[in-house]
Design goal:
Rossmann fold, about 15% strand, about 45% helix, alpha/beta
Length: about 425
């Protein structure tokens, strides 16, 4: 076969990655850099581990380092990172003061987009932005003739609004934990979808909600997130018939995540040989409500990421009964720790869990299916031990490297 001249070889794309916060954008930055594709990563607060910032914080007392440890990125040199810390610090302070989260994040995201220069956009071959923080950026990319790829972290906002209405109807006592999205902000997200050259989602559930709202299927690709199986590891233990089964929920303790559904089901079962722990951000109102009405449930509140990954293997089963997600990254993280997962079809569950092997997946709000899944793990100790092995094996297939390869394919194809 005749060898192609060098000028005919496919050049490596230069990608501008943008995200004002964290989420999985750090992982994407690592994967793009690994493939020589990262041009710049614009964010709020992030540091490469080769920076003097990392050297400074690493010698400070442990509790200070842990507070900022999720802002350091492995394997991405600091010279690729463009920070705008004042915008992020301002938003964090306003949230700490109890200001409206939707308004605070909207203002943060607007200022963040305006802070990205035209020069950075023009120098890149393509731009990746995230939902709720890209409506201005997407329009600028169109005006500057640059492809804009929208990374979607949650299912369609219109579908979400419909789910919220259902939750309020089912659990009126939990209305305080549900805040419907302002229609102006829903319109902003729909603008991002319209302006995007291509949309990348993480689960078939998210894809389904987008197609149902009129987004063409050909405009969407599914690229599931990965999990660091070196960071999340199982604890070697054998569960016997004399052991209590420890269930855990990890995520925001609110109605969207299915907490009222979980607590009512748990209370109805009246279990004596099982424990339930809730870990995650929780408002003072929600905390008081749970402590008053469900005193048998352990509520730990928000914990540092470093602590979560260390204590997760101490549990036996994770319950994640969400009514609405984009993926649910805690699911593969739990699987990696050897925890079978009870979850719903409104997560990545249908994509990665086979019923009876790595856990159970059912329709959101299906009380009977939830009860059966919980009771299964309490009564089938031998099968639980087998499922812990299967959970870990499944997690080992969900790599961030595969996620990076899929992104490379998407960027070179569309």
């Amino acid at each position: 076969m005749e060898k192609k001249p060098s000028w005919q070889k496919i050049s490596i794309l230069k990608i501008l990655l943008t995200h004002p916060g964290t989420q999985h954008s750090f992982q994407l930055a690592k994967q793009l850099h690994k493939r020589g594709m990262l041009f710049e990563f614009h964010t709020g607060i992030a540091f490469g581990k080769d920076s003097w910032y990392f050297k400074l914080f690493s010698i400070l007392p442990g509790f200070i380092y842990h507070k900022i440890s999720n802002r350091f990125i492995d394997d991405v040199p600091d010279r690729y990172i463009r920070r705008n810390p004042l915008i992020e610090l301002n938003a964090l302070l306003r949230l700490k003061l109890g200001q409206d989260e939707e308004v605070v994040l909207y203002n943060r995201n607007r200022r963040f987009q305006l802070g990205i220069s035209d020069e950075s956009i023009k120098e890149a071959d393509a731009v990746i932005g995230f939902d709720t923080s890209s409506w201005i950026l997407a329009e600028r990319c169109r005006n500057l003739s640059r492809k804009f790829f929208l990374d979607v972290s949650i299912a369609h906002p219109v579908a979400k609004d419909l789910v919220y209405r259902r939750i309020i109807k089912l659990y009126p006592n939990w209305k305080f934990s549900v805040k419907s999205k302002d229609y102006t902000h829903i319109a902003i997200e729909e603008t991002e979808m319209e302006l995007a050259w291509h949309i990348v989602v993480a689960s078939s559930f998210t894809l389904k909600t987008y197609v149902e709202q009129g987004v063409p299927t050909k405009k969407i690709s599914i690229n599931p997130y990965g999990v660091d199986t070196h960071m999340f590891r199982p604890k070697l233990k054998e569960i016997t018939t004399n052991d209590n089964i420890h269930f855990v929920f990890i995520g925001s303790v609110d109605a969207r995540k299915g907490i009222p559904f979980l607590l009512e089901t748990w209370e109805k079962l009246g279990l004596k040989n099982a424990k339930l722990t809730l870990i995650g951000p929780v408002t003072e109102v929600t905390q008081k409500f749970i402590q008053k009405n469900y005193p048998s449930v352990f509520l730990k509140g928000k914990l540092p990421f470093s602590e979560v990954k260390n204590i997760l293997p101490e549990f036996d089963v994770m319950i994640f009964p969400s009514f609405f997600e984009g993926y649910g990254l805690v699911i593969p993280e739990a699987l990696a720790c050897g925890l079978p997962v009870i979850t719903t079809e409104a997560t990545c569950g249908t994509d990665i869990i086979e019923n009876g092997k790595e856990g159970f997946v059912f329709e959101p709000g299906n009380e009977k299916e939830m009860e059966n899944a919980i009771l299964f793990f309490i009564s089938q100790h031998e099968k639980l031990n087998d499922m812990r092995i299967l959970a870990r094996k499944k997690a080992e297939l969900l790599t961030w490297n595969s996620y990076g390869e899929q992104w490379k394919e998407i960027l070179n194809t569309f």
